[in-house]
Amino acid sequence: MVPRCSVASEARDEPLIGTASTVTRFLLLEDPGPWGVDAFRDARLPSELKNRLARRLREHGIRLLLIRRHGRSRPQRLRCFAASVSAQECWVETATLDSAQEVLDLDLAALGERRSLGLPRHAGSLFLVCTHGRHDPCCAERGRPLARALSRSHEEQTWECSHVGGDRFAGNLVVLPHGIYYGRVDADSGARLAREYERGRLDLHHLRGRVTQSFAAQAAEWYLRAALDRVGIEDVRLLSEASSGGRTEAVFSGNDGTGWVVRVRTSPAAPTRLSCAAIRLSAPPRFELIGVEPQAQRRM
Q1: 121-164 pLDDT, tens per residue?
Q2: How far apart are CA 10 and CA 13, in angstroms?
Q3: Which entry of 74, 236, 259, 291 is 20 to 30 Å from 28 by CA?
């Protein structure tokens, strides 16, 4: 019997670092489901609505996630969130819709340009747990217990969501507004990670990366934080990165005025199944640390 993709990933000790999505604009639309293999394509929404919305999302570079409360309640009105994540500014706006059709009235062009949609700002955090079991069973088996636990500790901030990528890292948790991806989060760890985030701190053990950076830069930031034991969200900031011949050099600044250069090497890992439904094997990238040094001691 072929093991679940998440079980196999853990068994081979596959690193989490450098695996967060690089999408930086999100539209979250409440839909209680059920969700099909492709949550939006298979949603029980009018075909014209889905076609028009899909075109606008592609045009403006926005990722749609369907969201729902744990327990799949059917609300009379639908919550909707628009999120923009960048190194300079992260924000979330929100609206309550009488019907899904009203999502077409939102100014998605503004979101694509990182401008306000003219909606109220959402002041709190959002904890999005992938529970999209029809896409991958690991997301249901590991995501739902996490969503249940987080809903108890952070009821208003927690939503189940459709596919976010990295099924083999379930339970997957996406945190907005900062666009932080966590993986292999279990029910016992979820509330602690949420509390730490609200205190402005990251959990390096579960960190996959943040969406504002390339995969290699995500890995470089993890190596820097681990080397310096800096877990504050604002402790380090990416200034620049350059890649050549499978090597990436990323320059970071610390919140204490220090500068750091991190070099990582990218190479393909052994081919493996990246999801339970994968038909063919794929070789995901691996990121090996070459060195971390103060910017003043940088070797040219």
Answers
A1: 999 999 999 999 999 999 999 999 999 999 999 999 999 999 99
A2: 5
A3: 236
